[in-house]
């Protein structure tokens, strides 16, 4: 298995294809670019690069889900057509008061954003997002436990290093004392022999 920019190259699973398709379709629905979709997909599919996501989309997935792509684009066009028409920042309704224009545009943006949120949060999508959030929560808990365990192991390793350093110092001291004992024994033996 080779690596390109830290991401693995291997066969795509059905789950990866599904995730990539959902991300790109969501971006198409809200009028975002495919490149941004590929970037998001690369972040979610941690073993896939942006280029790999783009290639997979264009070479395989796009051909399989043409109808869904067309529906997503239609949905985006419908949302765009729902926005109020403005010319040079002024509403075409004849309202020239800047505060009113801004309030009207903000209300229209909120309505459009709510429409998008409703589409994104369809019951099946909400269930999918809830399951995804539960999985993320479980992963976060797991990583926190792992982090705690690793921190504990780091403390144990540091304690062992300190113990080893202490033992090395004691060993050096013991070697020194043994050397002095040999010198003393040699001296004592000479004194005993000499008299």
Structural class: mainly alpha
Main beta-sheet strand count, sense and barrel state: 2 strands, antiparallel
Order of strands in the sheet with most strands: 1-2
For the termini, the CA-CA separation is 81 Å
Order of helices and strands: EEHHHHEEHH
- Helices, by number, come to 6
Indicate the low-confidence ranges by residue numbers.
1-5, 83-97
Radius of gyration: 35 Å
Describe the overall structure:
- The chain has 195 residues and is mainly alpha-helical.
- The chain has a domain at 1-82.
- It has 6 helices and 4 strands, in the order ββααααββαα.
- Strand 3 (86-87) and strand 4 form a beta hairpin.
- Helix 1 runs antiparallel to helix 2.
- The model is unreliable at 1-5 and 83-97 (pLDDT under 50).
Short précis:
With 195 residues, this protein is mainly alpha-helical.
Quick tags:
195 residues; two-stranded antiparallel sheet; 4 strands; mainly alpha
């Amino acid at each position: 298995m080779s690596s390109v920019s830290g991401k693995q190259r291997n066969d795509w699973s059905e789950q990866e294809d599904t995730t990539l398709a959902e991300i790109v379709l969501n971006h198409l629905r809200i009028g975002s670019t495919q490149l941004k979709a590929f970037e998001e997909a690369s972040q979610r599919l941690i073993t896939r690069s942006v280029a790999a996501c783009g290639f997979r989309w264009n070479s395989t997935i796009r051909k399989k889900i043409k109808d869904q792509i067309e529906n997503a684009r239609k949905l985006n066009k419908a949302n765009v057509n729902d926005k109020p028409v403005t010319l040079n920042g002024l509403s075409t309704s004849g309202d020239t008061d800047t505060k009113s224009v801004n309030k009207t545009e903000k209300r229209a943006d909120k309505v459009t954003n709510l429409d998008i949120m409703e589409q994104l949060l369809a019951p099946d999508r909400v269930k999918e997002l809830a399951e995804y959030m539960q999985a993320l929560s479980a992963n976060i808990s797991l990583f926190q436990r792992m982090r705690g365990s690793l921190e504990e192991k780091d403390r144990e390793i540091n304690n062992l290093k300190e113990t080893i350093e202490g033992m090395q110092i004691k060993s050096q001291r013991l070697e020194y004392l043994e050397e002095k004992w040999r010198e003393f024994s040699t001296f004592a033996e000479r004194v005993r022999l000499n008299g």
